[in-house]
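Worked example 4.2. Below are the chains of a multi-component assembly; read each line carefully before continuing.
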Amino acid sequence: MSDIEISRRRLLGTVGAAGATGIALGAVSGAAGYVAAAGDPATALATVGSASEAFHGEHQAGITTPLQSRGHLIAFDLAPGAGRKEAVALMRRWSATAARLMAGEPAGDGDTGVALDAGPSSLTLTFGFGRTFFDRTKLTARRPVALDPLPAFSSDQLDPRRSDGDLWVQIGADDALVAFHALRAVQKDAGEAARVRWQMNGFNRSPGATAEPMTARNLMGQVDGTRNPKPSEADFDRRIFVPSAGAEGPYAWMAGGSYAVVRRIRMLLDDWEKLPLKEQEQVIGRRKSDGAPLTGGSETTELDLDRTSPDGTLVIPANAHARISAPEQNAGAAMLRRPYSYHDGIAADGTPDAGLLFVCWQADPLRGFVPVQRKLDRGDALSPFIRHEASGLFAVPGGPGSGEYVGQRLLES
Amino acid sequence: MSDIEISRRRLLGTVGAAGATGIALGAVSGAAGYVAAAGDPATALATVGSASEAFHGEHQAGITTPLQSRGHLIAFDLAPGAGRKEAVALMRRWSATAARLMAGEPAGDGDTGVALDAGPSSLTLTFGFGRTFFDRTKLTARRPVALDPLPAFSSDQLDPRRSDGDLWVQIGADDALVAFHALRAVQKDAGEAARVRWQMNGFNRSPGATAEPMTARNLMGQVDGTRNPKPSEADFDRRIFVPSAGAEGPYAWMAGGSYAVVRRIRMLLDDWEKLPLKEQEQVIGRRKSDGAPLTGGSETTELDLDRTSPDGTLVIPANAHARISAPEQNAGAAMLRRPYSYHDGIAADGTPDAGLLFVCWQADPLRGFVPVQRKLDRGDALSPFIRHEASGLFAVPGGPGSGEYVGQRLLES
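Applying the procedure described above to all two chains together yields the following structure tokens:
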């Protein structure tokens, strides 16, 4: 055991073993819903560093895990000449690294030391396969229809160099150095097998910044995520995850998995911030202060979509973002939005290069993201203030069983 | 009072009034030293959001304030045609905004709402003047000698577009949205008076990520800041702050102030991470695991600079970073290093655009940063792994008294 390993273990010993305690904490926070800070504030705050998420399980971590305060998204393409064999070895390396890091252990020999002193800090690593992965590995017959390219939307201004990719990794943690440490470990593991295609950084609220757990806000200042499906809802699993029971056929390897749609959505903040509060609220259809619908109540009150003002106009305008994206306006289409905000300083045109790393999860993109985005694309009052700049769609297999690596059921069956 | 203001106040009411309680917390954490997470972990964690720093006082906040987990640096140039009058109005606006935001209140009408729900989260805004500010405002006679340009160092590869500036603002907070909110408020206040010259984002460890407060680590994995002067040391104030007592003459306006040297130091992580641990430790002169000198002990043990190995070589090599930068090797030159790490994704050459937003504070740069950097420039073993890419030097006046704005003693005397 190296000096570094001893030091890390010693630290973790002082806050509780990373194994049983950590996983139990993860399970508890997972049930608490999609809020920026997990669980009861008094206890959550004492466990920022020591909280850990389980690597093994029916689903990969990082999907129902509460939003972490720091995130990285990174996509790779397999190197020229690399195929299925190299992909198997890579997924083995990545799985072993993820299991270690998520338990608060170093990555192995040559660990950079950046995460030393800290606990796992709810670190998650989540792995997905892009459409192009299947041709490269001669697994085209097993490529799910759900990975067919997303339709083009009229408002898209996508940069192909920051879109798609053979492989995708989502990293989240409640400490920026723990997240960066994991990012570098993933890059190191890629070795000669895969090359970075694009990489983005994001953030959310810090645990304990609010007095109690609250729905996240985005960089426009809006409460964002109120209508997200909740794990406590009866149809949550069916909507978010590919069914595990009775899976057969060429896509059986996706049992317990989910599809991630990733969109880099630039917010045109210089324009948005010039809009008076009342007009911003008309665009969204909700109050900025607390996220309540313009038809009244609190954040979680249902939208009263038919209510009119004395002058006969709709209180929640016909093109309000909340109306157009409401599940009941989209045949119940539902996706679990789990975004990070991003801010990469100032763009060449002098405006803030900031917005949302939108990541949403669903059992089928054609019944989740696509119909909602198609509708938003046609008439969302928010459209003039945002710009979709990059896009990706990834098949994220179920969580690995004990002794398994992520994607084994695809790569070795 | 707007909806937003009511909402914010209501929230703060649940965690203690932002005034007396918050300022008291700030004072406590300030005394705890320069660690990533402030104070006793059990209580610090419960106060991430509600902790606040005082805007008024002998010194500006953000100098001896414990490192926050998120930071922004932004520099402005006065707009063409703008002079002293516009500068006065701008410093008044910025001071009013800083006082409100640091107390957890909205910025005023048109607040973006991004910080809603959160407490002040130890937010600090710190304002400085660059050398060029004094000519623009016809205050050249009051420009301190200490603002003379830094000498050129042989290893500099400075980008002038990301260096210097008439005005500089350092923002820090323990929540990324609170920090971003402040950044946008500062930009809005600039209005037509000043234009953004450059802007950078940084981060440190999250409160509670370590089981107890620890010295920060940088993205090379090194413990960084062990030898920082401590406020408990008798000569701390003399080294860091311009004396307040008996200040006279053209620079009297700097009483209680400090000089900030800002360097964007790129870390060549692809090269560094290939270096074996033992060689990394020879470069630094300290163990990576716990920051202890290679001559033994713990992090805070003195370096034994004369100790040799049985083969006659120095245990802490002659060119080790810790040796060359040691105060006792630099006639006691001391500066308070208070950096943020940065990571802006992947640079055009495929390497990580990451490193240190080095910010150091001293009463006189010619007795702080300059002699140490000159020595490092000649023989630091770390030099091949870093690159200074931007530089700034700013006069940061003392903290404002009640009813004063920052810089008033310069601009109105």
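Take a moment to check your reading of the output against the notes. The mean pLDDT of chain A is 89. The CA atoms of residues 2 and 109 of chain A lie 8 Å apart.
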